[in-house]
Amino acid sequence: MNDPVALKQEILRLTREYARQVHANFRPAADPARQPWRQGTTIPYAGRVFTEDEVEAAVSSTLDFWLTLGSEGEAFQKELAAFLGVRHSLLVNSGSSANLIAISALTSPKLPAERRIQPGDEVITVAAGFPTTVAPIVQVGAVPVFIDANPITGNARCDQLEAAYSPGKTKAVMMAHALGNPFDLATTLAFCRKYKLWLVEDNCDALGCSYSMPRELAESLGFTENSPGLDEGPDRVIRWTGTWGDISTQSFYPPHHLTMGEGGAVNIVRDQKLKVIAESFRDWGRDCWCPSGIDNTCNKRFGWQLGELPEGYDHKYTYSHLGFNLKPLDPQAAIGRVQLQRLPEFIEARKQNWETLRRGLAAHEDVLEFALPTHATGWDPETGFSWDGTGCRSECSWFGFKLAVKAGAPFSRTDLARELDAHGIGNRMLFGGNLVRQPAFVQLRHDRPESMRLVGDLADSDVSMNNTLFLGTYPGLTGPMLQAEIGVIQKFCKL
Questions:
Q1: Phi, psi of 402 (to 5 degrees)
Q2: Given pLDDT bands bounded at 50, 70 and 90, which one contains residue 42?
Q3: C-alpha to C-alpha distance for 219 and 260, rounded to whole angstroms
């Protein structure tokens, strides 16, 4: 075959056929071609969900062999930004790198001095969660200030924000939407507006979650428009999580709402200047904003004088930040573009899977305590969630099904986890539990007591650390798999 185009098409045809035959058990649960789950085999808490479309996209991009971030990456960045309704999305090689870039961007000397995060400045965060929400704060020389977490929502106790504030030192709030449950954005935004603080939303577990509030409240916080595809009527503003703060982050590791294998993104919500700064930190710290393989988009490549460099020094080799190289590969972006098209169905699947587990375990509220969305006050199998009087609402595309073993139950969280593990049912702790109890943070406090500050005793974060675990809600879970999980837990609770 001498025609390269025809040859590539034949390779891709065979690629699709191979993927159909080999990867049938990774298809979405609702896909009729999905390989049925067999009783007694493992049920992972999360995993890749894909078809031959993603495999073809990866192989096609690899055959073109650009490899580094290129046309697929540029397209995915625009498509993700359009889905969320943000100014820009920048792809990086992981969600952890996204958090590092987000907080690093706020240290830039290109920002106003009074808002720039400098060594010794403080960033308010939450004690319970994943360590790479917090580690970048320490890595840029700032001081994390830990507030407690609500064991029901898994999110920060935002009533402690004022106690955490230190005039002249606090510069930002950086917190995650825990397990796909938005934190109290109304309270947090009002606090940040009051003190002119940056808000960084770690949205790694929450792509496809939304938060709404009465229009009058939203407008007082500077929001008038809904996110694309969302509408709750003229009296409310509804937006995706990751679009309320100044910067947000995403992870595309396999357990997350969509996957590139490894990968993540930094979302610049409004401020164009933050895009240029974040991109610089991602791309070696360079001052030039030309895409890879393209020169002189500023039309003055040899016309700058920066730092103590000679006038006319090549702008492509001028560095205004101490940056990194944290780009993913273009084949990964090609996979991500296909996954992004599946995101609406993935969002709904996660909601439905959470609902199935909640209904199936409702009879065991005597020993198990279940999560509630932020602002919810209860759940009923007939009427759904009841809500507090703030007028704010959370719509969760759950990363996981969180439950806790109540005090006084005849078994512990660890007993339940061992039972699930014995039946091949994937489960996880609430990530790092109370992070200040983790060896790395204990050592940090020992070496440099001034390196962090705690608000209160963080007792509720300890409760989550000791009593909580979560099951999967990912869109690869079929009905029989969910019922098997429910059956094992029901039987264990009755022992």
A1: -85, 135
A2: very high
A3: 36
* Residue of 88, 177, 256, 315 marked catalytic: 256
Q: Is 38 left (phi over 0), alpha (psi -120 to 50) or beta?
A: beta
Buried b (16+ CB within 10 A) or exposed e, 286-320: bbbeeeeeeeeeeeebeebeeeeeeeeeebeebbb
Sheet order of strands, 210-214 included: 236-240, 210-214, 393-395
CA atoms within a 13 Å half-sphere pointing along the CA-CB vector of 330: 17
pLDDT digits (tens, 9 = 90+) for 362-398: 999 999 999 999 999 999 999 999 999 999 999 999 9
In the chain, which residues fall in CATH 3.40.640.10?
A: 71-317
Q: Point out which residues pair with 370 in neighbouring strands.
A: 403
Topology of domain 71-317 in CATH is: Aspartate Aminotransferase; domain 2 (3.40.640)
Contact between residue 127 and residue 461 where contact means Cβ atoms under 8 Å apart? yes
AA identity, residue 388: D
Whether 256 sits among the annotated catalytic residues: the reply is yes
Q: Where are the domain boundaries for CATH 3.90.1150.10 in the chain?
A: 343-494
pTM: 0.97
- Per-position DSSP letters for 150-168, written without gaps between them: -TTT-SB-GGGHHHH--TT
CATH number, span 343-494: 3.90.1150.10
What are the structure tokens assigned to 270, written together?
């409004």
Q: Which residue has the tokens 């359009």?
A: 82
